[in-house]
Amino acid sequence: MTERDSLAALRWIVDVLHRHQVPFQITGGCAAKTYGSTRELNDIDIDIPRKDFKKILTAVKPYITFGPQRYKDGKWDVYLMTLNYIGQEIDIGSAEFKVST
Asked: Which domain, by its residues, includes 74?
């Protein structure tokens, strides 16, 4: 995955969210990079309100690899949908989630 592909994927999903008037926040490694992190970007993490998943479902359906459904493991409890757009993984999670430490 090139930086150009990651940027194209970010632009694509942000455009989808804007077109469907879904509020969002970019989190995880992508957000860290905007603050100067040099770590490699593995995926793009975006949080949206759970009620808004249905607004974007048709637009992102061809790229879904998981969900949307509840994802729970030893650390996370979140409503989640994972996409793969031009080889870039995008995790869209509910803004309402729990993290165990």
From this structure: 3-95
Instruction: Tell me, rounded to whole angstroms, the distance of Cα 28 from its chain centroid.
Output: 9
Alpha-carbon gap, residue 92 to 78, rounded angstroms? 10
pLDDT tens sequence across 60-86: 999 999 999 999 888 888 899 999 999
Domain assignment present for 67: yes
The predicted pLDDT at position 82 comes to 97
* Number of compact structural domains in the chain: 1
Question: By C-alpha distance, which of 74, 73, 79, 75 is closest to 97?
Answer: 79
The answer to whether position 26 is within a domain reads yes
Q: Is residue 101 in a domain?
A: no
**Structure tokens that stand for 87 in this block:** 């080889």
